[in-house]
C-alpha cells in the first residue's frame, strides 16, 4: 500500500506530494520550492527518491526541481508540450512578476508524449493529458490505490486559472469532463493547491461544473 505525504511549499503554498512504497522508495510530485523541507521529510521517513514528476511547469511547481534532482540524482518527468518551460521565465510565469526571480531549471530528463500507463520502480500509474490550465498539464491516476495527482486542473470548489500562456477555459472543462469526472466517484483527487476532493464532490458542488449536470 502506498503512503502519501504532503508539503505546502513556496509563496503560493503549492502542494508537493511524496508517495512512497513499502520498500521506502518514493516519487516526488511538484517540488515547487523550499528543497530543504523536502529533504527533511525524506530523511525523517528514511525514504529513497527515484523520480520527480511534474503535473506542469509553472514556476510555483518547479522551484526546487534542480536542487532535488541533483541531491538525489533522479530523473525529472514532464509533458513534451512544456519541454522549454523549465528554462524560460516568460513561459513558466516567473517572468510575469517583478517580485520573483527568473526561474531557470535544467531540461527534463524524460518527456511524456502519450496517455499511457507509466511504471517507475514498483509504482504504476495512468497518465492523462489534461490541458487547459497549461498546454502540457497531466494528471497521474493510481487507480488501485484510489487516488490521483491532478495538479492545477481542478480544486475543491474551483478549477485552474486559464489566463496564463496557452490557457483555455473551454479546453480545461473538456479535460475535466473527459479525464477527471469519469474517474471512480470517490477517488481522492490531490490538487496543486488546497485540500483534496473527489470527482463526485466536485460534480455536485463545484459551480464551474454545473454545465455537466444539465
Automatic annotation (TrEMBL):
Which terms does the record give in the GO molecular function aspect?
A: hydrolase activity; metal ion binding
Identify the keywords attached in UniProt to this record, alphabetized.
Answer: Hydrolase, Metal-binding, Zinc
Give the transmembrane region(s): none
Statement: the UniProt record of this protein carries the keyword Metal-binding: yes
Alphabetical list of SUPFAM superfamilies matching this protein: Metallo-hydrolase/oxidoreductase (SSF56281)
Q: Which SMART domains match?
A: Lactamase_B
Metallo-beta-lactamase domain sequence ranges: 13-193
Q: What is this protein called?
A: Metallo-beta-lactamase domain-containing protein
Cofactor (UniProt): Zn(2+)
Amino acid at each position: 500500500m502506498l503512503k502519501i505525504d504532503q508539503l505546502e511549499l513556496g509563496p503560493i503554498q503549492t502542494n508537493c506530494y511524496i508517495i512512497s512504497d513499502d520498500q521506502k522508495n518514493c516519487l516526488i510530485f511538484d517540488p515547487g520550492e523550499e528543497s530543504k523541507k523536502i529533504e527533511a521529510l525524506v530523511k525523517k521517513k528514511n525514504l529513497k527518491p527515484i523520480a520527480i514528476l511534474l503535473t506542469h511547469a509553472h514556476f510555483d511547481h518547479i522551484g526546487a526541481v534542480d536542487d532535488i534532482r541533483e541531491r538525489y540524482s533522479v530523473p525529472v518527468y514532464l509533458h513534451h508540450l512544456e519541454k522549454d518551460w523549465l528554462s524560460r521565465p516568460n513561459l513558466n510565469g516567473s517572468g510575469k512578476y517583478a517580485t520573483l526571480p527568473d526561474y531557470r531549471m535544467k531540461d527534463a530528463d524524460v518527456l511524456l508524449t502519450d496517455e499511457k500507463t507509466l511504471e517507475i520502480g514498483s509504482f504504476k500509474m495512468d497518465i492523462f493529458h489534461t490541458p487547459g490550465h497549461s498546454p502540457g498539464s497531466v494528471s497521474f491516476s493510481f487507480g488501485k490505490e484510489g487516488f490521483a495527482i491532478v495538479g492545477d486542473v481542478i480544486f475543491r470548489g474551483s478549477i485552474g486559472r486559464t489566463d496564463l500562456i496557452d490557457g483555455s477555459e473551454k479546453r480545461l472543462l473538456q479535460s475535466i469532463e473527459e479525464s477527471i469526472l469519469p474517474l471512480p466517484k470517490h477517488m481522492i483527487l490531490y490538487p496543486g493547491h488546497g485540500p483534496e476532493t473527489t470527482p463526485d464532490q466536485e460534480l455536485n458542488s463545484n459551480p464551474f461544473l454545473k454545465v455537466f449536470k444539465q
